[in-house]
Amino acid sequence: MEATVRRTSPGDDPPQGLLVWLFEEDLESSLPSEVDRWVGGDSDRILSRAEFRGRLGDVLEMGPCGNGGPERLAFAGLGKRSEYEIDHVRRAAAAGIGRLVAAGVSRPAVLLRDLPCLPAEAARAAVEGGILSSYRFDEYKQAPRPKCTLERIEIALAEPRDLADIEEAARVGRIVAEQVLAARDLGNRPPNRKTPVHLGEYATEMAARRGIECRVFTGAQVEALRMPCFLGVARGSAEPPTLLVLEHGKKYRGRRPTIALVGKGITFDSGGISIKPAENMELMKFDMCGAAAVLAAIEGAARLALDLHIVAIAPCCENLPGGKALKPADCLETRAGKTVEIVSTDAEGRLILADALSYAATEFEPSLIIDLATLTGACVVALGRRTSGLFGTDEDAKCELAEVGRWTGDRVWPLPIAEDHHEGVKGDTADLKNSGGKWGGASTAAAFLSNFVHGRPWIHLDIAPTAWSEENRPEGPKGATGAGVRLLLEFLRRRSEAP
Ligand code: BES
Ligand code: MN
Ligand code: ZN
Fold it and tell me: What is the three-class DSSP state of 75?
């Protein structure tokens, strides 16, 4: 994939296909003149298409335009001008470029029309939307790929502008979107092709390619790190667990902030002895999407050469009901020393994270820890399928993440960790128990995790709502979404630019 910027006007060598975004208000009278020129003064023909009202998600795709114009032309609705957000551009670009590609355009251009944001921001959002929309997971299909795929996105400028800014934004957009796709590939892969050992090989290979430091601990090495909770969960499966530890920007350690990213890497969650119903159990291959997000994010951080010390940590194992599996009522010690009574072996994510968080906190003394996990069904009940749960102890980071979530479209919403949630995970026979019962399950899970960060500033993102989609969307097909990657990369980028 390429993303290029060019200055062009009607009459120049036309792009193969052109996307033009329009607000609802743009359709009230004749089209804006810079748009009209592209359609050869044929505004009326477009305005008469009753089905296209410029609503967010609406696309009108047509062609050829004749008189030396682009072969295909697509209009994508941005909704109402008064409700404008940058993510609407991303979504309109996804919908419009998706349709152009489906119509055989492999090198669509986007007309960079004036919007209530910087042109460079719009260019970035357009590139992201286009690449996200082009994603298909066909690693295990014998049949040939679809005839037309996206090769290049052009940003077409009607007026002279500062090209350097726009080119840089397009480059960032391409990297961010490609990292989202990398996370999707990991999420969509079948569990027998992404065992904890496979993920270790993936991380090693990726890290070598990107100049990232990478250690993969397995079997006895994990034992040596003293991670009794993580190993407890892993014991239910014959697949050996791995702990992935990647580091970007080690040279900044001590001079710039150290940020630790911790991702839940359950490559399949059967529930263990507290086994899940068979229906939809196959979806639990997505239970490693937290790990996928932190791997994709650290790769993106390296590609963007962010000047931060970033550590990505992913405890990876299966949660299966083997002969050595945990049992309800078992009692485990944690790496941090506290004891945990197992109420449900299906609340395994918080167990492996407890040890991984503690490892992150003591080994790297980070100025911020962010964990991502498909942790609770309760969070899906609370927030639906488009917003991740945001918890934690660092109020500044929480505000910033909420804002970055709106800006990237990778949305998060704050949920509380209150006294009653801590109360809920107090143990009867041990210090803690691993399930807080029926109510407030996302918050009791977060309260449990808060015991393992050794007082470090900490954010927990419950991505169970967002990590996979049950339907095809303009910004990607059903399956893994890469949730968290855009959020993390933009958050890290802003932190890296802060003094
Ligand atoms: N991986 C699941 C959480 C999950 C459920 C994610 C549905 C996405 C959709 C997690 O390991 C789990 O099973 N959580 C339990 C916790 C309970 C036993 C306290 C849950 O949410 O039911
Ligand atoms: Mn579970
Ligand atoms: Zn799980």
Answer: strand
